[in-house]
């Protein structure tokens, strides 16, 4: 009996239940019930088989312990921190990592003094030079990291961060323990990044290698990150088993074969150092603990067991922070590895059995393909529902991508690691090795880009029928697994799943394209993105969000591709504020665009220049709207009006009017009432059917003068989590008085208007 696995998995089940269902009094009642039933089993020595009784007691006592432990952790670690939230107060703590630049300054993670809890401090850019180990203190506005503007957020608590501290006034920084050996792993990773930048002057290659060796993807371009994600190989940047196995293999080459105990001990120490160096992410903690179990098994004269080592790793992580259970990275990492443990060998045997010949070269190729395909498919068994839930994506190309990319990525990682280490000894030699890494990185990115250009490389759950197909497919293969052993049933199940998938995709494309014209307000939170399409031609007007947890570009691209639209006739930008533009970089990286329409105004944020660089790189025509421009769109016409106002960017934006017959949709960006009055005075706007409400329902927009002229029948407000009070009651009252029916993306989600026959 796998005793450790039974205890660890039961403990994990209890923690997941407590965290995902919400910590409360129910935990103590549930813990008491588990304890009571466990004690009952303890007394049933004569009426139950001993093995079954023992397993039952282990499960119940572990569940009881998990529920009590999570409640104690919440009461002793999280609650004292959240009790101080919502008010101004002093803070002090130890810096855990170098600050990260933000739009308004820097963000630095600290461990609060006298507590096991962490917090993130947002301060001015002058504190960018803080080092791990320094002590900082000051006044700050405390914000609960798990509850932001009435929204439940798990991203912070899953990393042990329970408060966001917005500094008010100067901070005091002291030397603390900075420079001590305690912070050597952190200093090592910074030195590694600097050496990578020195070896590969090409910024794209350096960013790729940094992501590969340390898991830090912040330096990668939107385009490179997008193609790796869409190809289903972004997991290469999660420091995990590949990295750990290589480190152990490298040490094995350097140490004598006979000194097995020394090699195992040194390998364990290096793995622990590397684990801390790259940030103790769930994937690297899991991989290192599993590798340590593998190294220790021969020394203890035991066989290594994948499920036991996997469950032990999960136990260690959850003991350190039960709230890590809510983390997406932990769920994906352990789900993928569980699939490998449960199914990889069986799938590999199945694929190898398809070739019964005796030719060695052919068998070698079959074994290579079988190993890669079985690993990819096994890892996907439990991760597909998670990627569907968290990322809205189902990658069909992932098995092929892993077959063609992962081996080369493995070699690039190993060569990059050796080259970086060599760089600390002699930089010229490292740069010579770096050319090999450069070639492998170019191949990986080229292949990923080529695979993402294949039609249907990924499906998106913006297709509302796809979730039902997924349930059907899992039910189909589960039924196969629990019935007889005949293999033919899996072929039948695969054929049925493929046929129904084609029907699901085709149905959504057909229904999405009905009508003479369609206008969709995509739910991007506090921002705006409007899709206008007729047939297979589409235009996107603005794409951005001020909510950091919303990827506006991905949401828009997912929606378009789920409708079978992979090329845009045009993208129009009303103005350069981030909540209307920061999703465009992802959108332009994923979809082909013919024309980019921009207002001919300067901006202080550098958005215009960045868009121009992307347009030049992707061969997109740029048109500055200095006079009225008309863009044909199937049976509709998009008219773009140049800026009519003066002042800030809101008042210097473009206006878009899309017309199909007598049906009109008006988009005014973020212009205020004074500019709206200039607009209706300068242009002869028609009665419209749909108004994309200006400035997210601000009281300064949707003026009486505009509404009296255009008389909208429907008003759509693109709005989300914000501190501005949008949409305001004043704006909604004016819209209601004008006779408009009001819809809001924060309540209805994506809002689609379909025009039939231009009426």
How big a fraction of the residues is strand? 15-25%
User: How is the main sheet built?
Assistant: 7 strands, mixed
What is the CATH superfamily classification of the largest domain? Answer: Ribonuclease Z/Hydroxyacylglutathione hydrolase-like
What would the average pLDDT be, to the nearest integer? 91
Approximate shape: globular
CATH topology type of the largest domain: Metallo-beta-lactamase, Chain A
Class from helix and strand fractions: alpha/beta
Number of domains: 6
Q: How are the strands ordered across the major sheet?
A: 17-16-15-14-13-12-25
Name given to the CATH architecture of the largest domain: 4-Layer Sandwich
Into which percent range does the helicity of residues fall? 40-55%
Under CATH at level 1, the class of the largest domain stands as Alpha Beta
CA gyration radius, whole angstroms: 29 Å
Low-confidence stretches: none
The DSSP helix count reads 24
Quick one: how many beta strands? 25
N-to-C span: 70 Å
Protein name: Metallo-beta-lactamase domain-containing protein
Transmembrane segments: 27-44, 56-77, 236-257, 269-294, 314-343, 364-384, 404-425, 432-454, 466-483, 490-509
InterPro entries: ComA-like_MBL (IPR035681), ComEC_N (IPR004477), Competence_ComEC/Rec2 (IPR004797), Competence_DNA_uptake (IPR052159), Metallo-B-lactamas (IPR001279), RibonucZ/Hydroxyglut_hydro (IPR036866)
Organism: Vescimonas coprocola
């Amino acid at each position: 009996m796998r005793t450790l696995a039974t205890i660890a998995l039961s403990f994990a089940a209890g923690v997941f239940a407590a965290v995902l269902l919400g910590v409360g009094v129910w935990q103590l009642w549930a813990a008491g019930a588990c304890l009571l039933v466990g004690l009952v089993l303890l007394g049933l020595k004569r009426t139950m088989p001993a093995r079954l009784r023992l397993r039952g007691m282990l499960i119940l006592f572990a569940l009881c312990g998990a529920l009590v432990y999570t409640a104690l952790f919440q009461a002793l670690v999280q609650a004292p921190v959240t009790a101080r939230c919502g008010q101004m107060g002093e803070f002090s703590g130890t810096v855990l990592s170098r600050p990260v630049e933000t739009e308004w300054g820097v963000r630095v993670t600290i461990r609060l003094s006298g507590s096991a809890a962490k917090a993130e401090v947002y301060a001015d850019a002058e504190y960018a030079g803080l080092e791990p180990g320094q002590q900082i203190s000051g006044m700050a506005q405390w914000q609960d990291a798990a509850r932001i503007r009435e929204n439940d957020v798990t991203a912070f608590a899953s990393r042990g961060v329970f408060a966001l501290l917005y500094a008010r006034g100067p901070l005091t920084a002291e030397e603390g323990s900075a420079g001590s050996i305690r912070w050597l792993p952190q200093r090592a990773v910074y030195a590694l990044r600097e050496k990578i930048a020195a070896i590969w002057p090409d910024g794209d290659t350096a960013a790729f290698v940094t992501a590969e060796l340390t898991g830090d993807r912040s330096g990668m371009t939107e385009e490179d990150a997008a193609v790796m994600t869409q190809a289903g190989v972004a997991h290469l940047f999660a420091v995990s088993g590949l990295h750990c196995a290589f480190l152990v293999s490298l040490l094995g080459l350097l140490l004598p074969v006979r000194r097995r105990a020394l090699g195992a001990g040194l390998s364990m120490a290096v793995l622990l150092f590397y684990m801390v160096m790259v940030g103790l992410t769930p994937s690297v903690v899991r991989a290192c603990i599993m590798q340590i179990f593998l190294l220790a098994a021969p020394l203890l004269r035991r066989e290594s067991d994948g499920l036991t080592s996997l469950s032990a790793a999960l136990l260690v992580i959850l003991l350190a922070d039960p709230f890590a259970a809510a983390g997406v990275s932990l769920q994906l990492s352990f789900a993928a590895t569980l699939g490998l443990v449960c199914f990889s060998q069986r799938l590999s045997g199945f694929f190898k059995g398809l070739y019964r010949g005796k030719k060695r070269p052919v068998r070698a190729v079959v074994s290579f393909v079988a190993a890669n395909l079985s690993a990819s498919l096994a890892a996907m068994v439990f991760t597909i529902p998670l990627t569907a839930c968290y990322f809205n994506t189902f990658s069909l190309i992932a098995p092929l991508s892993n077959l063609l990319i992962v081996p080369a990525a493995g070699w690039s990682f190993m060569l990059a690691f050796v080259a970086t280490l060599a760089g600390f000894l002699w930089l010229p030699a490292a740069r010579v090795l770096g050319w090999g890494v450069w070639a492998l990185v170019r191949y990986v990115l080229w292949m990923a880009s080529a695979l993402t250009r294949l039609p249907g490389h990924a499906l998106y759950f913006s297709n509302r029928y796809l979730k039902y197909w997924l349930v059907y497919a899992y039910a189909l293969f589960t039924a196969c697994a629990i019935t007889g052993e005949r293999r033919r049933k899996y072929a039948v199940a695969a054929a049925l799943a493929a046929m129904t998938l084609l029907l699901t995709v085709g149905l959504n494309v057909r229904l999405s394209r009905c009508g003479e014209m369609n206008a969709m307000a995509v739910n991007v939170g506090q921002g705006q993105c409007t899709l206008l399409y007729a047939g297979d031609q589409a235009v996107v007007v603005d794409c951005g969000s001020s909510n950091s947890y919303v990827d506006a570009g991905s949401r828009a691209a997912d929606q378009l591709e789920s409708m079978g639209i992979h090329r845009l006739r045009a993208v129009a930008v009303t103005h350069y504020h981030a909540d209307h533009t920061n999703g465009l970089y992802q959108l332009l990286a994923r979809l082909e665009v013919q024309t980019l329409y921009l207002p001919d105004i300067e901006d202080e944020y550098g958005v215009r220049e960045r868009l121009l660089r992307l347009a030049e790189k992707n061969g997109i025509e740029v048109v500055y709207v200095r006079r009225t421009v008309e863009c044909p769109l199937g049976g509709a016409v998009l008219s773009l009006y140049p800026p009519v106002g003066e002042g800030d960017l809101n008042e210097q934006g473009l206006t878009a009017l899309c017309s199909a017959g007598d049906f009109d949709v008006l988009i005014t960006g973020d212009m205020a009432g004074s500019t709206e009055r200039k607009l209706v005075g300068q242009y002869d706007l028609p009665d419209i059917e749909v108004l994309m409400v200006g400035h997210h329902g601000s009281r300064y927009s949707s003026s009486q003068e505009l509404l009296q002229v255009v008389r909208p029948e429907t008003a759509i407000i693109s709005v989300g989590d914000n501190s501005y009070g949008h949409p305001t009651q004043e704006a909604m009252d004016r819209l209601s008085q004008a006779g408009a029916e009001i819809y809001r993306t924060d309540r209805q989600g994506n809002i689609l208007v379909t025009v039939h026959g231009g009426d």
